[in-house]
Amino acid sequence: TRYWFGDHDFSIWDGLLAQYRPPPLHIPGYSGAAGFGLGGPGSGVPFHFHGPGFSEVLYGRKRWFLFPHESKPVFHPNRTTLHWVLNSYPALSEEHLPMECIIKPGDTLYFPDKWWHATINLETSVFMSWFLSP
After folding, report:
1. pLDDT for 43-69, tens place per residue?
2. pTM of the predicted protein model
């Protein structure tokens, strides 16, 4: 999975960004910073947390796993989400299962502040995320 964050020469993305319309979602008092990414099947991001935000898929499908901040998932930080799905996920008891969903083009997911989350691309995927801060 490849991501594009932070301060960049946005002019190189003018063609793409001119066609992109962010979701009409806002949290009063927060502003957003955009992140762009693309990834192949089986790629993704291991469990981590940060401030709140939104993520949407422009192409493909992405599976999300989410835990409230106080329910830290058991995972190895140097292993992929695919490894976790194949080796750890099947052994989870029902009360330790994450909330999960699959987002596809047209869907937008809100991830709450400091919630643990991991993703896996089910096929080649292109996505935008909006990271919010007060």
Report:
1. 999 999 999 999 999 999 999 999 999
2. 0.87
97: amino acid identity, one letter? L
What six digits make up the tokens of 108?
A: 């937008």
Q: Give per-residue burial for 76-105: e unless 16+ CB within 10 Å, then b.
A: eeeebbeebbeeebeeeeeeeebeeeebee
- Compute the CA torsion angle 14, 129, 45, 89 (nearest 10 deg): -150
DSSP readout, 39-65? E-TT-EEEEE--S-EEEEEEES-EEEE
Cα gap 59→127, rounded to integer Å = 7
- C-beta separation of 63 from 25 below 8 A: no
DSSP class of 31: E
Convert the pLDDT of each residue in 80-110 to its tens digit. Answer: 999 999 999 999 999 999 999 999 998 999 9
Backbone φ/ψ region at 45: left (φ over 0), alpha (ψ -120 to 50), beta:
beta
Q: CB under 8 Å to 4, separation ≥6 — which residues? A: 13, 35, 36, 37
User: Measured on CA atoms in the order 116, 97, 126, 14, is the torsion positive or negative?
Assistant: negative
